[in-house]
Batch of 3 targets.
Target 1
Amino acid sequence: MKSITIHGLDEEIAKLIKKRAKSEHTSFNKIVKELLGKALGVGGKDKNNRDEFMDLFGIWKDEEEKDFSASIEDLETINPSDWR
């Protein structure tokens, strides 16, 4: 597999790629490869990429995860009387 270096990348483009990588929880490099593939009409998303399932499960923000964990906290404890 080949590697490339891009010199003089526009700062705005770099910021947008970084922002997208962060929002998709992936690397800068992976976003660049995806964009190049799409621009050239080849490839596409990696078939093991979870992004294709985002409409089914999504990603929780930290606060949402804390709220959910708090709401099921009582389910984490085994009550022996439930097993009689």
Note: The chain has a mean pLDDT of 85.
Target 2
Amino acid sequence: MIEVREDSDKGGPGKSFNEEGNNVIMQHDDRTLGMYFHLKKNGAFVEPGANVEAGDLIGYSGNTGFSSGSHLHFEVTYTNRNATEGICVPVSFQTANGLVKCPEKGSILTAQ
């Protein structure tokens, strides 16, 4: 676990809210970063330095930061030596109905 922030209760559709979002950022064994943004205030269930296993509760989605409504922004990234920003990694989710491959950037997945 690299970073946990859960003290904000501020969020809205303007860029002035960019620095107000709660988040969890964790480093995986393969050195990629899993990033969870817009968590609700006091909604993180992990602490820096904690080990997290598949299926563990990480946190609850919210409406903090630059956000127009309650949702979870999730991405997996890595950085190579020549990159100035993280490079997104395609992900898949195991669900009760089988494997769901993540749609293209900007697509919306809804929990059931």
Note: The chain has one domain: 3-101.
Target 3
Amino acid sequence: MTQLSGQLAQNGGDGLVFLSEPSYSPSRDRVKAFIAQKYPKARWFMHDTVGSDVHERAATAAVGQSVRPYYNFGKASVIVALDCDFVNGEEEGWRYQKGFAEGRKLRKADDAMNRLYVIESLMTLAGANADHRLRVSSSAVAEKAAQLANAVLNKGQAQDKWIAECAKDLLKPENKGKVLVIAGERQPAAVHILALAINNALGAVGNTVVFHQVPQRNEGSLSDLAQALDQSQIKTLVIVGGNPAYDAPVDLAPKLTTKKGFEVIRLGYSEDETFAVTDWHFPLAHYLESWGDARTSDGTYVPVQPLIQPLFGGITELEFLARIGGAQLTNPHDIVRDTFNATVSPEENAWRTFLHDGFQAKSAPQPVQAQIQNNVVTEALTAAPKPPALSKDNLEVVFYRDAKVDDGRYANNGWLQELPDPITKIAWENVILVSFKTAQS
């Protein structure tokens, strides 16, 4: 890779583009900063197939600084899920489940359970647990969110009885500071901003919703990458993980698979669709073979430790990027140790404790005091489109994260395919679900 690194360094990395998956690794951020110094003209783009970063993007836009929301379901008396299957289909689902279940336990005779309102387009596990469920099309969720926000923020009377009763419950004095409104990953940023605005107006920010400072993101989107490809601005495309030739949007995937005058270098786990269009392919080590680190959703600093050495000569993301950048230190263990030394302590005992405990005690940052900007909320309210009229001639398709194979990345795992879907109980099949009435028409 030394020869390759030398080629990329020409002209400060002009035409050099990185496409990577989301990461909250301090070590990767440090290696990325080193690459930016060596290749000042290089550009970074991020590819997230399921849109799990929408919570961070919406919160950052709403408060005007780079923050990430942290949701405390266990502290909520009233929960409103806007097309959000927090029990099964969200990135932080395991933590949301635990908090939600805590609010359903009755420890004393006079205890009250939390109440769950769900607006959704599919029958989900969250909807199955709801006390009050409203089924609408996915495109209509934004309109319902705007109606709920108007009823709460402006004390307006909602025409929809379901929305009016939900707003009435949220506005009860005994629920002040103990409500939680959360939007799902499938919904646009405007719906997330409205959810944050409702939380803010009801005193939930600082209790059921807290904001943590995160590094400012400077990666471009896939649409930005598509534009760069159209304008022939790319000489070398470095793909770090993922399989964009398989899961990129339909208007971008052909541009990646039909190369026009640029070289593709890829770090990937298998010989898949993207492998077929690469000039250089490096084997990615499994995460159980990799050294690394990360920040959890509340900002706690944790190590990623391998169980075994790489079986088939795979390299980790940290090593790959360090070698691409021509760094002297390329061993992933040493990179993580250097990050720990710089951010926590250079002492050996501190490092051993970090590895033994699996997290750094008291490393989570204090929540930041942030206010929702009124102009952003106003824009979100006015941006809620009126949903189109749906019929047998104008159907709406909803793609959701599968409980077994996620976005399809695990489809080659037959053991996972054996698991039944938690709602439909279907195993192995990939079906289109429609109502009986729609099927008849």
Note: The radius of gyration is 24 Å.
